Amino acid sequence: MLARGGYDRVYHAGFSRGSRGAAILLHRSLPMLVTATQSDPQGRFIVVKGTLHGSPINLVCVYGPPAGLDAFLLSLCRVAAGLPQGTTLLGGDFNAVLNPSLDVSGEISTNRSARAASFSSWAESFGMCEVWRTWHPRERRYTHTSAAHSTQSRIDLIFMPALDINNVTGAELLPRGVSDHPPVRIWLGGTDPTRRLIWRLNAWNLQDNDYTQEIKNHLTQYFELNLGSVQSPGTLWAACKATLRGQAKYLLRSRERARDSQLSKLETKALILERQQMTSESASVLRQLTRVREEIKHTALESEKHIWRASAARIYGWGDKNGKLLHWLATRPLANRVIPEIMEDSGSLSKTPIEIAQRFASYYTRLYAEHPRPTAEKESPLLNGITLPSVPLAIRDRIDEPIDLAEVISAITSLAPGKTPGPDGFPAELYKRCSDILGPHLLSMYEEAEKQGRFPNEIDQATIVVIPKTQPPSRHCSAYRPISLLNTEIKVLSSILASRLREVIPTLVHPDHCGFMPTRSTRHCIRRLHLALAHHTTLSHTPLALLLLDFEKAFDTVDWSFLDHVLLKNGLGPKFRRLVKLLYSNPTARVQVNGVVSDAFPIGRGTRQGCPLSPLLFALIIEPLAILLRNDPLIEGWPWPNCPEDRVALYADDVLLYISNPARSGPRVLQLLSLFAEASGLILNPNKSLLVPLPRSRDCVDWQQSIPVRRNSFKYLGIYISLLPELTWELNVTPLTRRIKTDLQRWRALPLNLLGRIALYKMMILPRLLYLLQNFPHPIPKKWFGEMDSLARQFMWNDARPRLALKTCQRDIYNGGWACPTSIIISTRCMWS
User: Fold this and answer.
1) Residue 535's pLDDT is what?
2) C-alpha–C-alpha distance, residues 444 and 463, integer Å
3) InterPro entries annotated for this entry (predicted)?
4) Global confidence as pTM
5) Contact by Cβ (8 Å): 138, 102
């Protein structure tokens, strides 16, 4: 649970008896690269070694047992001796004090003095300074109260080497809250000062009806006062967002002040009583201090009760149902999202957050820079030489109609909740709650933007977050996938255009293209490939090969002029094309990495990954290439008797070519790809493309040298395809079975009942089985189905004896069952599908 609360890296040392332990939690925003860890089997310390902003750092959390201080300090000596050079933070509950005269109230025993002498000698021998005492040399504060002895002591300490103590800019003891030990907080200098706070309206606050009503009242009042005062709906809309942002901050701040005022008074009172107790050591003052601390604890818990109640209701309602909560419990925490370093073109490493952010910004500035526009001699022959499917006139007029308010409201309603908002910080939930107020003015803003050909300032700005394609993350910017976080206005307009285009795109795209097309899926491409291999591998005497094409940054390099020309050739109306152009008229973006936001840079090409319209536009963009390859007389496909030949199969940017006589067809394919790249901007990446000759065509690959050759197996759309049928099971089913066993074993520790386990199995395991069974080319032995059912049964009953027959669980919920799937039923449905 801690790993899910923003602290995605948790390192701990536990003890079997549960009497001791130490833990270090690193927040996801801390750009620390962890290189090594060391934990004590006795649960006394945990060590995390790494680098921060390119400098080495060591974090050590300790728990000193009440007895055996000398042995504990000896073990710390060994740990400290093995730490690499760099800043070291060593802190925790030592159960010992350094200076009894300042750190202990009451009479000082001989045993405590001896322990303090050993402790102080250890700190001096390693050149360690206690941070809080360095900043408060004569102040008396305590972190632990012993009710049995009626004494107080300061035993929670943080040490640093004397050479690094100048990096500390502050240290304080916070008031005690829920815990019986107060937090110790220190500030370190030298951290990157360029971090920018990114404001976002927390969608959780919108579940408070009073808060939402105040937001609605503000919006209503704003439009009543300002409607008609400005002529531009865009200006009115931009100013509305600015005032709404300020109002949202004010409402939250005022609520926080009201909630924290009582707590602040109690904390001040506790500090006064603590100082009185230090000087007087009065039992009555100690009792008052104890009561105040209990009030602080009660007040702090009361202020969070509404959050706990909402969380408990969410867990109760969704804990054992298919949903985000169950998926959140079942999946592993995301890998560390902090990028510790990036390699520049010169080979040097950028390690500070601002350098890394600017490095990504420079990379994407070059990537999204406007492609040299094709001349009429290059672009026109490419598109004018082929016939693209065209939208019928009646349908075109319907798609080209002006946007109405009903479409805007429908698009707002269909927005997915729980998504990260764009740069303006307003989530989709706000638009849903206030759609009746915002909808008409949003429509007016769209109408004005269409006439002017551009949005108001900052509306078409995006925030790019990067996700590593591989684990561990690479040091190169190209190894990260950019995801654009768009403002909700852009999402709404994109959703409207996508819903209109979705009506006609099956008529504009050949059935060979299955990506994001209605009624089409990956199984059409994979089954077609299996069938072709089964037929031609043994019967064909013509040299045959498969060519899998990969385009370099396909979605990010699309030329906008080519896109507009394709839409024109497809017969889409002028209004639709103007709205598409509006989405790509001078947009800008910033890169957010490690909590740092780079400077804005212009975007001159590409379709945004994260936009609902992008997949459909890309399908139209790549269709001219498919037509060129499909109709070129110099390219031969795989023949079928009395049927059209197989030649092209597409799924988004995954292109598979079936070519006969590769020595003749291959060079022509590369020539057409080069012509298409000049016009569209989509450039072939030969290193990630593959050439797979069939067994009888192994010698027909001399026509190219840059594309890798695979002769036995390859991966296509998530399925391993083997030219040797006996290896298909080993490549696909065996690894899947192993992963399923591992996941089921890991999930047994989750606090789920029988219904929750069934829901988890259907949500996490069933899709994997369905995808495999829909695309597997050979009969699967009945023994494997029995094994899968046995694993499911053991998981659902948590290795206990089943109390219901499996057939009873397999009934649907309307017949007294729980709709528990079995592998045989799944396989039968896959066959019929």
Assistant:
1) 85
2) 25
3) DNA/RNA_pol_sf, Endo/exonu/phosph_ase_sf, Endo/exonuclease/phosphatase, RT_dom
4) 0.82
5) yes
